[in-house]
């Protein structure tokens, strides 16, 4: 059984035992990983020398046990007769054996490689499919930075075997990557509240008078800053959105609340027509978020009012960044007919 089959068998066995692996909370953010590689080419290319190269990967945890990584590398090696270059573009699946600070993993990958070999009187090149297997480890440096080291073997089936003179090539790689996550990890969940056990009393307590009736329902307008909801000039909600989650909880708790108006506003920067469309898209985005939390869309109406009803009007800054900051209160989304109740300590 060759090395690639052994790696595939180990991966299958570990998948079947996945309930005991990778139990830690993961950071679901995409990350970037500049990479330095050491390469040892197949001696049939006429080189067989060790040399260096570099590349760039993008990755993302997609499951407590799996990462995906896509990227490309370029490496070159030569001797007195032959100059050889290899370009690799592919995708890897990393089976994470842990999600702690030190994270060993197995990897399998597929992709395409371009082999180019030249020497006096001879020149050959071509793209070919490959599959790969290997092992590695990641180590956290802090909540955004990690280090990855891996070793792998790429098995290519050469399409231009008539030029190269052989049909299969094995390339060995050792890579060192510095990983940077685009977003910080999510906050850990709050610990459960443990209620104290009741203390038995020797005598029955006197009957307390009935509590006073609750105050009548109160309706209020909730104003959400667009800076908290969206990036500048964007209608895509940033995550997470705890305030919108509070509004969704209030609506779920009281189905009698209907005709909820969600009104989007912008500042005066840009054309009136563009601002009107942007405010409508932002109001629609808030409505769609509440619907995704289980709220009946018939209870929600979204309106865009562009740059009307500004909160601040005296912003005269010349520098655009300062003007944008001054006009921030005008970029908002208002949700009317909502009461969000919170415990008062």
Describe the structure.
The chain is of the alpha+beta class and 345 residues long. It has six helices and twelve strands. It has helices at 3-16, 161-164, 226-229, 242-253, 272-292, 320-326; strands at residues 31-40, 50-63, 66-78, 83-96, 102-119, 122-140, 145-157, 168-181, 220-225, 260-265, 300-304, 332-338. The strands form two sheets. The chain has an eight-stranded antiparallel β-barrel. It has a four-stranded mixed β-sheet with strand order 9-12-10-11. The radius of gyration is 30 Å and the shape is elongated.
List its salient traits:
345 residues, alpha+beta, 8-stranded antiparallel barrel, 40% strand, elongated
Strand order of the largest sheet: 1-2-3-4-5-6-7-8
Q: What fraction strand?
A: 35-45%
The secondary structure category is alpha+beta
Radius of gyration: 30 Å
Main β-sheet description? 8 strands, antiparallel, barrel
Helix content range: 10-25%
Order of helical and strand elements? HEEEEEEEHEEHHEHEHE
Please tell me what the overall shape is: elongated
Mean pLDDT: 82
Give the CA-CA distance, first to last residue: 67 Å
